[in-house]
Write a structure and sequence with these properties.
Strand order of the largest sheet: 5-4-17-16-15-18
CATH architecture of the largest domain: 3-Layer(aba) Sandwich
Distance between the termini: 88 Å
Keywords: Carboxypeptidase, Cell shape, Cell wall biogenesis/degradation, Glycosyltransferase, Hydrolase, Membrane, Multifunctional enzyme, Peptidoglycan synthesis, Protease, Transferase, Transmembrane, Transmembrane helix
CATH class of the largest domain: Alpha Beta
Shape: elongated
CATH superfamily of the largest domain: DD-peptidase/beta-lactamase superfamily
Number of helices: 25
Family: In the N-terminal section; belongs to the glycosyltransferase 51 family.
Helix content: 25-40%
InterPro entries: Beta-lactam/transpept-like, Glyco_trans_51, Glycosyltr_51/Transpeptidase, Lysozyme-like_dom_sf, PBP_transglycosylase, PCN-bd_Tpept
Oligomer: single chain
Protein name: Membrane carboxypeptidase (Penicillin-binding protein)
GO molecular function: penicillin binding; peptidoglycan glycosyltransferase activity; serine-type D-Ala-D-Ala carboxypeptidase activity
Amino acid sequence: MSAVSRARVLGKLAAMIVVAGALVAGMLFPLVGGTGLAARNSASLLDALPVELTDATPAGNSRVLAADGSLITNFYAHNRTVVASDQIADVVKQALVDIEDSRFYDHNGLDVQGTLRAAVTNVAAGSVQEGGSTITQQLVKQTLLETADSAEERTAAVEQDGVEGLSRKLREARLALALEETYPKDEILTRYLNIVYFGQGAYGIQAAAQRYFSVNAADLTLPQAAMLAGLVQSPTNDDPITNPENGQTRRNQVLQRMFDLGHLEGTTPEQLAALMAEPVQVAPGVSPANGCIDAAVGGFFCAFLQQYLTQTLGITQELLDNGGLTIQTTLNPQLQTLGDQAVLNTLPMGAELAGIFTAVQPGTGAVLAMSVNRQFGCADPQCESVVLNTVASQGAGSTYKVFTAAAALEAGIPANTVISTPGNQYTSRIYNGPSCGGDRETSNGKYCVQNAGNYPDTLDMVGALVRSSNTYFLALEDRLGSVEGPVRMAERMGMGFDQPNQTPADQIIAENRGSFTLGAEATSPLDLANAYATLAAQGTQCDPVPVTQVLDRNGQPLTGDDGQPLVTGGNCTPEAIPAPVANTLANILVGDVANPEGTGTRAAVPGHVIAGKTGTSQSNFSAAFVGVMPEYAASVMVLNPKRNQNVGGFGGNKPATIWHDAMAPFLADKPTSAFAPADPGLMGAGRPAPQPTQPTQGAEQPAPDQGAGDQPPAEQPAPDPGTANGWPGNGGWGGGFGN
């Protein structure tokens, strides 16, 4: 060793002697005074244990569970699974004590003798061969480091040099003494084994056992235990996966130390030599899933959940990553898997057109599934990081006619109300907008719509809903006198109009947009499913929720600042709309799926009564279908989320097919209920409650491509926002079309 190197080592030896003396002083004279250093630190030496050290080990991974208890994914910053003492093999504890702190069971948290011995050993070797800190001191250091809230605190936790370094060591010594007075040795050792870093992203002995050997900490063998105990000093340099020779050398040092201390009873020197000659046998395991990109099922649901936890419940991402929470979600993995397959049956993975299936539970708001023909979060072209199930990008067409119908029923306009619209077109008396001929002057600037194909000139509300007549519903809006009733009804049922690319409800009302009933407004698929769920729940509206409970690390409900559980159940509003209105509409809408003239017959599932509604937006830029039962509600929207594109069909085609392909196998072994009866008064005199007949071919009966709804007329485009015609923009005058 060169003179310079020896001088450096001797300098370190001198520093360690000073530290050792300071530690003795810290033990014997906590009320020291005199020097500036002692005076400055005497208060901190007497401090009670900080909360970081009275709490248990950092909790580790948070688990996200589906409704059936299966694991969806984890959230973690450090891969750590905390285990109890009896879940750690005794040989692991012995190996760690022998190599890190052989006097652990004899000292009271400080080991001055060990510190001096390590200093002498290191000087003799010319390098660091032994550490001077006890396991208790290391636990203090690691805990303060991991729980540091700022860069300054992290720096202070590892400071080595000068007065600050000595100050840190003194504080660690005092806290180590306090820990030993507070907790038994086995708990200190267990906490250390749960917190220390073992390399390869594994924090704690359980994660390390899984990462290096694919076993639990309780099942580690002697060679495995020696290997992991040796990693604590230098996890990168001695990594048995990337540096197997170094790993074997370090493992053998631990085995030799255990033998020398008499802790390998029954092992002869020859047996030890044979054991040390064997290379390290690793069986690397994969790291646990982390975040929504790794979700086993429902990646888009997971992303919606994460946003709900952090933004709605106020759980910080730091707590989510490090709090060891158990998050019980509403996700139904069977329906999620079937929804995933259903969208792929119709649209390939990553196709320009997105098929978006979203399911909720009426009466609770529980979100059951969110499927898209995309993978969540990755970088490939078939991937998507936006939760399309919640984003409002295109209109939902004639699905909005239900809001007008509900407003009319509530206003005393019964379902037997007959309106004549001869010639399959109707010009409003109330609402301004483009005319059917494109000449605003010829219609005095009033809004005009047409139907696709030939409709009866005269329909009542039941027939108009089942056939999805544009002209009837614009005329019905005329009778209401304002769009305010349908807009407020949509809000009460669960529709939102507050996303950046949506027009606020107040603006829609102020501009008196007659096109509202035709579904021109950008629509969230989740909102659409949830609004129709209000019909299925007899008028009870519930906000969508993805979680049923969040438990803390101890299995108790996670509480907020007020001490109350953060999850208290769904946020539901009974009678958000009158139950007779909801029940009447649900019964009417059964005809859209079950009757041959309905536009949604492709969604029919024999043996189940389904209320449904189709919708297609202006220029076929989107198509939608919503189907509900008292137990389930689900929407499907097909659209291009990046640009306007003709989807090549109507709501009764791709969307109804996707709905059927998801729900038919799901319902195969599940009973569903009938809707509550329609209200005779709302049906009107002489109009009995609908008696739908199931299509003879069930789900296989194709929906008519013409005449069963309202195909967008080519001569009636929706004006762009802000054009010279002066009509309200944001797509406000686009038509909505039924099938």
